[in-house]
Here is the input.
Amino acid sequence: MKKLITFALALAASCFACVGQSLVSMPVVQNPLFGVSTNEVNATFPEDSPSVTLGSDLVITGGSGTYSYRWYDNSGKDLGYESTLQVSAPGKYVLDVKDTCDCLQTVNFNISVSGVDDIRASKAKISFDSMYGHVDIEGFDPVQLSAVDMSGRLWAVIDHGGMVFHTADLSSLTGGVYIITLTDSRGSVTSLKLIK
Here is the structure.
C-alpha cells in the first residue's frame, strides 16, 4: 500500500509539473565576425631609415570591439603590448590581437631592408597615375602590396584575400619616395621604388 501511495503522489506531482511549465525566451546576441585586414605583411624599408612602424595600417573589425595586443619575435620574446611596434632591424615579427571574448587573430610581418637605389626588379614595373592616385603593375602578379616611405613609416598594405590585382589605390600617400613591396601567391617578393 505504501508503494501505491508513493506512486500516486509521484504521478500527481509529474502531472502538475507539466501544467506548471512555462517558456522562457532568452535572446542571444553574437558579436560581429572578428577579423583583421590581412594576416601577413611583407615590407621593405630603407637601409638609412632608423626604424619602421608596424601595425599602423591594420584595420581590425568585429569581435567585442575592445582589443588587446601582443607583439613578439620568432623566438617568442615579447616586444610590446600596443597596437603598433617600432622596429629597427629586419626580421619576422608577430602581432596577436585578442578581443575580450578571447578570440584571436595573428598577423605576421616579414621585414627586410634595402637601399632605395639598390632596388631593381627584373620584370616588374609600376606606373603611378597622378590623376586618379593609383598604380598600375606589370610583369608581376601580386596578391599584396605594401608601401613604406623613406622615414620607415608603413603607409599602406593592400591585400585582396589572395586575389591577384594589377591596379592599387595609393591616393592616400603624400608626395615623396616610397619602397613598394609586391608579394605573389607563391610568396615571391619583389621591391620597387615609387616617386610620387
In short: The first helix runs from residue 2 to 19. The helical segments are 2-19. The mean pLDDT is 82.
